[in-house]
Model the fold of this input.
Amino acid sequence: QYNKRWFIFGLNEDLNIPTWNLALDRIIDISESTKKYIETNIDWEDYFYDVIGVTVPESKSVEDIELLFSKEQSSYIQTKPLHPSQKDNLLETGELIVRLKLIPNYEFEMLLLSYADKVKIINPKSLKEKIANRLKKASDFYL
Done:
């Protein structure tokens, strides 16, 4: 379950994908299969540990993320951490530096965008540029 949506994960034999992801609310129809059930040895908690959400980009690895949250947002972030790897450093200004170790994915990007002007990405530069580009495109809608 992520963001009030339930998912089912398993092997997609036709596409040879061992970690196929389906949102339950998007399933329109089901039919009985004659295929034999194949048990997985995947530890799903371990599989999802390095991400926020349900998308695990196979081509990416864990990165050190550093964020700066505004004074107004800092207590919320401290009391409801973004990820289990979160390490906080509250500054004298009331701003909060947050360090995370995770794989940046779509859900993480959307989470960052939800904080708008209350968060600044310090590192990595690639994530900073990606979010800056998204914000630029979004601001063009209103100018």
